[in-house]
């Protein structure tokens, strides 16, 4: 989010507004794990809910009506998904009810994605792979489609039997990192897995007594996902071992209020980006440094500047086209097309649909 209208509410002394502000802040921030951005209408609706003008049910109804009257004609535009899922996450996080069961996990997915994915609330029946920037294009080995329900049942059973009694906080965090990373790796759903896991995990942490009403999830959702990836990837031939160290840093910030730096570049398996790390660099500049290290030697200084500006504007997997390039860079149509073509050829972006006047997105970073 470029601007955050919720921080003042999070600082509010009035518990109801503070809790709703946190819920909305987290809900919107979590859309970043899939490169999605919410609309100004969603922000306006959220503020009305926090102020007590409308209920969550009314907020959801307003969004339903809004998109019925204003449907997108671009199949790659996922703003409607981001808006609706954000409102549903905020509602779930504002509820006290919770049960630590696989059915609750499936129910959260169903509530988040009904009307968005046809498989909402259903365990996937096919195997998947996902190319990861943090793994240099490799994929995590996800759970086998034929074993997903049994694997879910087993992991929940093992966690229910586990005793936290007598453990130090370091041991508790290490165990929770292991649990949530394994739950995520099962990847029970075809889409929406990380957002569902995050919502479930936040509610589970509350049952353990942790007051996780802060902005760590909201502002570091992409780091959270990348740390889950690193917790489930091995390549012994390259000396790479699965590790929860990054996830533990995230959880220490979330649960203990620590201030460990959470930079996505430090998770990349090549280690190449660690050399550019500076202790005082702003989080928002971190991803730009990653891209800059990758493109400096392949483009002119001016083109590099253009690409960095586009990457900052279209973060994650946000879809954009030639008209967007023209707007952001104040560039003519012909030059915008040339830049897009060059970026595709050099592997910086990938076409989603068509060329020239088509749609593109940055390769995962």
UniProtKB/TrEMBL annotation:
Name the UniProt record assigns to this protein: protein adenylyltransferase
Xref: InterPro entries: Fido, Fido-like_dom_sf, VbhA-like
Reactions catalysed, as given in the entry: L-tyrosyl-[protein] + ATP = O-(5'-adenylyl)-L-tyrosyl-[protein] + diphosphate; L-threonyl-[protein] + ATP = 3-O-(5'-adenylyl)-L-threonyl-[protein] + diphosphate
Location of the Fido domain: 100-252
EC nos: 2.7.7.108
Keywords, sorted A to Z: ATP-binding, Nucleotide-binding, Nucleotidyltransferase, Transferase
ATP-binding recorded as keyword: yes
Source organism: Absicoccus intestinalis
